[in-house]
Design brief:
By secondary structure, the chain is mostly helical. The chain has one domain. Helices cover 77% and strands 0% of the residues. It is built from eleven helices and no strands. It has helices at residues 6-20, 22-26, 34-58, 62-95, 100-129, 134-147, 150-160, 173-196, 202-220, 225-235, 239-260. The radius of gyration is 20 Å and the shape is globular. The termini are far apart. The chain crosses the membrane at residues 7-28, 34-56, 68-89, 101-126, 138-154, 174-195, 202-220, 240-258.
């Protein structure tokens, strides 16, 4: 089986999440808005599923692997809903004119989440489509933690490793420096995996494309009046509509990805006894 030690990599991402979001989420968890709970629970459960899936298949616990795989069909739409709830929360803050920071940075954060949603939908669809190919299936699934790695690691960088910000922007733009650097580091990791096995490295190229797009777009859009007005228009759309669309997109990725996989070849029938 490929990626024998991948559970350590996923565990490292969980550790980065705990460290990066300790001050802003875990420590004040009782006063955190619902959107962040849904996002945190679904995202961390997704990582837990990946660890169980990886360990179970390597230990030939195929039944557990299939059960968790089926459970992911229920979790994945909720994961997309959680990401959309964060976008909606930021949109509501912008519409309420909460301050200069949300006006400057909020739309860029939202665009980053939109890119992450498209990346998750694409990677999970391709993982299901290629489930007959073990290396491609595993690669697409294991690429998903990289998509939001920038979010916790950029906070780790800002709080504990400021020397890593080699861009050196001032004010709120420094936040987007750390996001761009985090995405770049994750892309370097993904490309290293691609070059180890280029024949089956497509998942890491796909993830790299999304991460570098996210890095560039999030760095150049803060303060954009045009983007801010688009975000204000989005804020007027009822949450029931946006969250329903998010859930349907998640379900569609599951359904169409499953259907796109080639059928198993039929075993030749044994000739009847004379």
């Amino acid at each position: 089986m490929p990626y024998r030690h991948a559970h350590y990599y996923v565990g490292f991402v969980l550790l980065v999440i705990l460290t990066g979001f300790w001050a802003s989420y875990f420590a004040p968890i009782g006063s955190v808005p619902l959107a962040f709970h849904v996002h945190a629970v679904t995202a961390m459960t997704w990582l837990g599923f990946l660890i169980v899936q990886h360990v179970s298949i390597h230990r030939r616990m195929n039944a557990l692997h299939r059960q968790v795989g089926l459970a992911s069909f229920a979790l994945f739409p909720l994961l997309i809903v959680g990401l959309t709830m964060i976008i909606n929360f930021s949109a509501d803050r912008l519409a309420a004119n909460e301050g200069e920071f949300i006006a400057y940075a909020g739309p860029s954060f939202a665009i980053g989440m939109v890119i992450a949603i498209v990346a998750y939908l694409t990677l999970f669809y391709l993982a299901l489509k290629n489930r007959r190919n073990v290396k491609l299936h595993a690669g697409y699934m294991l690429a998903t933690p990289l998509i939001l790695f920038e979010s916790p690691f950029s906070r780790v960088m800002g709080d504990y490793l400021p020397w890593m910000n080699v861009i050196g922007s001032e004010g709120p733009q420094a936040i987007f420096d750390t996001i761009a650097i985090s995405d770049t580091l994750a892309t370097i990791f993904a490309l290293a995996l691609y070059f180890r096995d280029r024949k089956n490295g497509a998942p890491w190229l796909v993830a790299s494309a999304f991460m570098m797009t996210q890095a560039v777009v999030m760095w150049v859009t803060p303060g954009s009046a045009a983007v801010r007005e688009i975000f204000r228009a989005y804020a007027a759309v009822p949450d029931a509509v946006t969250l329903s669309v998010a859930a349907l997109l998640g379900l569609a990725a599951c359904w169409f990805g499953w259907k796109a996989a080639p059928s198993r070849p039929r075993r030749p029938e044994m000739p009847a006894a004379a």
